[in-house]
Amino acid sequence: MKKEIGYKRAYYYFLYLLCVKNNIEIENEKLKEQIKYLKNNATITYYENKKTNIRFSIIKTTAKEIIIIFDTFIDVFTEILLKEYYYQIENIRQSTLGKDLLEDIFLSDNTIAKKIYDKLLQKNTDELSSFIKSSKMVPAFSKLPIDHSDKIYINNNFVIQYNSVKKFLDKKIAQYIADESIKRIIFVGYSCNGILAQLAFISNVLKFRKNRYKFIIYGYGLPSVGNINYNNFFTSLIKWTNGKSLLTTIKDDFIDNLFPNTFGYKKQNAHIILNSVYKADILQHSLLCYLRSFKII
After folding, report:
1. Do 97 and 168 belong together in one domain?
2. CATH number at residue 274
3. Mean pLDDT across the stretch 203-218?
4. Which carries the bigger pLDDT value, residue 105 or residue 32?
5. Three-state SS across 19-42?
6. I need a surface site. Which of 73, 78, 175, 248 has the fewest CB within 10 A?
7. CB atoms near residue 178 (< 10 Å)
8. Do residues 83 and 129 both lie within one domain?
9. Which of 109-113, 203-207, 216-220, 273-277 has the lowest mean pLDDT?
10. Smallest Cα–Cα separation from 250: which of 14, 67, 2, 77?
């Protein structure tokens, strides 16, 4: 029963994530109504650092909770593997091969998706190389009074991106902590945005220790961006807060190994592991795959 409750909570906050995503086409009418209801019963405010292109949304609900959703990360992997891929899909949709080929890509384990994947990687080799070469493991919390903090490492690019909005976000969080009517502050993020949500969760739990039980995180498809000490530290913070936070992933999602183990990275400790509705590897990380893999709609 406990696992089922957690599963439903993960799905519920995934719907809030979809509330701020304008590029996802939802076909299911019941789901459309659910998202519409959530929007109509909440106040949504958008914030953006235009220099780094990091955006997050703050949703205030009637349930006296604040939901902070990180929405855009300068993420070449998402650009390459998803956005441009769907552009290719649209070309196929309009071709004479039409529906049969489209279903073949989505539902079979053939090499068509891999060919498009390889083509896109080759096209964006320089951009990928630049991103990877600039990535390095750095101490995540060296300035904080944490035991063995010098052994907790994370990818530097995510720290840089989070720091670009941290000052403004800190002010908002301080206001919410001072407001006794607000019962929960929930960070939500998908893929690389989920790492920003994770850093926000960690940062604020450590900053507002007396109010740590107010903080929750729901992350979906988070990549491996830290060493095993980082993962263990994050897991310990979940237990130290309220234990309600959840990370959800899809089995065999390529994002789990975005940075290889040989560099010291370890995959995140997911609480919920979904089975993919797609066989093509490239689609297993898409938002639609996560949505359909919940199998609630």
Report:
1. no
2. 3.40.50.1820
3. 94
4. 32
5. HCCCCCCCCCHHHHHHHHHHHHCE
6. 175
7. 9
8. yes
9. 109-113
10. 14
